[in-house]
Amino acid sequence: MYKLFIKQLICLAHKSSIMVGGQAVMGGVMMRVPGFYATAVRDMQGSIHVHRESLTPLVEKYKSQNIPIIRGFLHLIDSMKIGFKELEWSSQIVDPQESSGKLQDFFVSVFSVIFTISLFMGIPYFLTEFVLKSQAYFYYNQLNFNIFAGFMRIVIFLLYLIILSQLKEIKTLFEYHGAEHKAVYNFESGKKINVYNAQTFSTKHPRCGTSFIFILMIVTIFTYSIIDSLFVYITPFNLTMPLRIFLHLSCLPVVSGIGYEVLKFLAKRQNNMFFYSLSLPGLWLQYITTNEPNAAQIEVSIAALHTAFGDKITSYEGYEFQADAIG
Fold it and tell me: N or C: which end of the chain has fewer CB within 10 A?
């Protein structure tokens, strides 16, 4: 039960990259490239297991590559679907004795979703109502309400990550997260892809899912303020906390799509000092969610990258790429 819960927390707190890149899994790394994704995991005996699957992204299936916001939400669905699947596969490699029924998995999944909604919506909104209720101007002004609630959400998220990072399994996961970033940097640099070159790169990457979550939290402050204001203006209903949570959850596809566009925009402009500075909070957050990997972990990450590309890796080697150049 404990490990099932840990896996759910990983999926909810450690979102994979929504562009070309990957995700740390139990004992390894998943890498996603155009048309394919692959996962490499080192078992308890030290052997590396890999598997590769083809992928037709939802944006291609629905021809939405050039439709802002919608493409971001579809990318996120793809990432989460692949992330859950590969996390389950990796856990079976790392611990073959672990088994669970579908019913148990279902209840753990439901619990973790309720836990996440309560932690990042319920508690911030409750604290905001408690603090601002005596100040009518601040309480009924939707921008002020969402600024305060957004600040509380960020504080809770930071505390959550710090506490989570103390667990042994999560420390190892964050090391593989760092290994994934180093391998992606190595690929994008055009240098020969190997452990030695990968070690020279940073564990902090502007396209990281951690940066996406932070950007999403900033975006929600403004989008939820507009949504709440329109709701209060158009409808005769009082915006109670349960209604506010329902309204915000129903608007998550739009909000996540906007967050994707912001991350995509900033990731391609890291050479500009102004846009780089806007990316800094997300990069700083990676001091929590990435750890320096060892050579063996980088080897696993590179194995995932090579397996994902297959024979096509030779057509990319030696060329420099921007963050989403091959996406």
Answer: N
Determine the Cα–Cα distance for residues 244 and 121; give it in Å rounded to an integer.
Answer: 9
Which letter does DSSP use for residue 118 in this model?
A: I
Domain extent, residue 95, equals 2-316
* Residue 327 falls inside a structural domain: no
Tens-digit pLDDT profile for residues 21-71: 789 999 999 999 888 999 999 999 999 999 999 999 898 899 888 898 998
pLDDT at 231: 93
Low-confidence ranges of the chain (pLDDT < 70): 1-20, 98-101, 322-327
Measured CA to CA, the distance from residue 263 to residue 280 in angstroms comes to: 12
Identity of residue 129: E
- Assess if residue 256 is contained within a domain: yes
Predicted local confidence at residue 326, as pLDDT: 36
- Is residue 145 within 8 A of residue 228, CB to CB? The reply is yes
Q: Please tell me the total count of domains within the chain.
A: 1
323 assigned to some structural domain: no
Chain centroid, CA 205 distance in Å = 12
Q: Which residues pair with 22 in a beta bridge?
A: 31
List all residues 6 or more positions away from 238 whose beta carbon is below 8 Å from its beta carbon.
Answer: none
Task: Enumerate residues 6+ apart whose C-beta is below 8 A from 117.
Answer: 245, 249
* Pairwise CA distance, residues 198 & 29, whole Å: 15
Rounded Cα gap, residues 30 and 307, in angstroms:
10
Q: Tell me whether residue 322 is in a domain.
A: no
Going from the C-alpha of 162 to that of each of 65, 193, 292, 315, the distances in angstroms are 36, 32, 16, 41
- pLDDT of the residue at 120: 92
What are the tens digits of pLDDT across the range 303-313?
999 999 998 88
Contact (CB, 8 A) for 264 and 255 = no
Residue 310, amino acid: G
Q: What's residue 196's pLDDT?
A: 96
Name the amino acid, one letter, at 29.
V
Distance of alpha carbon 106 from its chain centroid, rounded?
A: 22
